[in-house]
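Listing S7. Sequence submitted for prediction.
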Amino acid sequence: MIQTDVIDSAWVTDGCEFALARQDQDWVVRVGGRTLMSSRMHDSEEALAEHAIERVDDPHTVLVGGLGLGFTLRAVLDRVADDAKVTVAELVPELVQWNRTHLAELHDNALDDRRCEVVVGDVFATIKRSPGVFDVILLDVDNGPIALSHAQNQRLYSEQGLRVCRAALKPDGVMAVWSAGPSPRFERRLASCGFDVEVLRVAARKGSHARHVLFVGKRRALADR
């Protein structure tokens, strides 16, 4: 059995323990005793950034919803211009601190990049107050729209939430959502809220048969609905 050593922990708003742990050479974040993310499996998080950014011409404003272990942020910074602005919204302040300390080597100190701004708080609040601001919105919140650890995240994936996301995008902007698995219902909801949708199945990590799902939505003019 692989030994798990808890390095630090915090209590999040719904009373669950949020813990940073070490398993052999890997870092894991656990919520309520269940592994939420691991440094062993991060290729799909990088793919989230890659597939969204390549669908936008010269993106200069990017929102990353959910810091995680920093892999998505690093992939964004490696693909945008020197004068781009990348906003990261993370609800758990302790996770931000862990990324600045214990986890910094995983993403080559991405939080210190001058293009990066960290907002500690609910990503939905950031989206709601930013109409027409972003070229790209990346959402890696919880386990996606079908496997929520926090019930309050459901509003982000609701019809109202998706319309708020669409309003925060510039014309021809792209929103991409990471998910642990497929959801035809969510795909249909995205389309009904003004997005041209692609569903991509990507490797959880290189050499693995495990797959995660990316919902990639291109903002569609309302007249074309």
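Caption to Listing S7: primary sequence and predicted structure tokens for the chain studied. The chain has one domain: 38-224. The domain at 38-224 is CATH 3.40.50.150 (Rossmann fold).
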